[in-house]
Specification:
about 25% strand; about 190 residues; 5 helices; alpha+beta
């Protein structure tokens, strides 16, 4: 009787551990298990490129007047113009900068979106109003799985090794982190 009871406890424990995984954890495991590599970020930037390649690509786009330096020279800046309206208040600022590992290779991209015409009294141009538009833009840029709600009001999208986290950072800014989960999970203890 003790052996059967012990086996029952073991089976229940395994069941509880497996059933306690969040939808997010299951999605990450399933997507990484596919072996699909989605290394493309945007503007020809990809996970695994070196810091010097990052700067060279940004320089090329700068010479074509597509990218420039952002405020305080801490981000690269681009502007996104609405395609379906002539309303210039809908023009968005996109700031981004790579996150690099010890070998100076891109492992993630830190991105911020805001309306250029944002002001505290302009509720239509707040980050809260901007977030669904950024989400829609990201779905067009990166088709595949939908965004799901994770903890702390963060929206998450995972396709293969590429994860995109989306959240309202302030009244003005929407924050996006695009990261290589394969690198993140295979280098946690290194």
């Amino acid at each position: 009787m003790k052996i059967r009871f012990g086996n029952l406890i073991l089976l229940l424990s395994i069941f509880l551990v497996c059933s306690c995984q969040s939808d997010y954890t299951k999605l990450v495991k399933d997507e990484l298990a596919t072996g699909v590599r989605n290394d493309s970020v945007f503007y020809g930037l990809k996970f695994g490129q070196t810091k010097s390649e990052f700067f060279e690509i940004c320089k090329e786009y700068n010479q074509r007047r597509i990218l420039t330096h952002g405020p305080n020279n801490s981000y690269v800046q681009s502007f996104l113009y609405p395609q379906d309206t002539t309303d210039t208040t809908q023009k968005m600022r996109m700031l981004f900068y790579g996150k690099f590992n010890k070998e100076n290779k891109i492992i993630a991209m830190d991105v911020k979106f805001s309306y250029v015409a944002w002001a505290p009294w302009n509720e239509d141009l707040s980050a809260e109003a901007l977030l669904p538009k950024v989400q829609d833009t990201l779905m067009k840029w990166y088709p595949g799985n939908s965004f799901m709600k994770a903890k702390d009001d963060i929206l998450v999208k995972v396709d293969g090794n590429r994860q995109i986290q989306l959240k309202q950072e302030s009244d003005k800014d929407v924050s996006v982190i695009i990261e290589d989960l394969d690198y993140k999970y295979n280098n946690l203890n290194k």
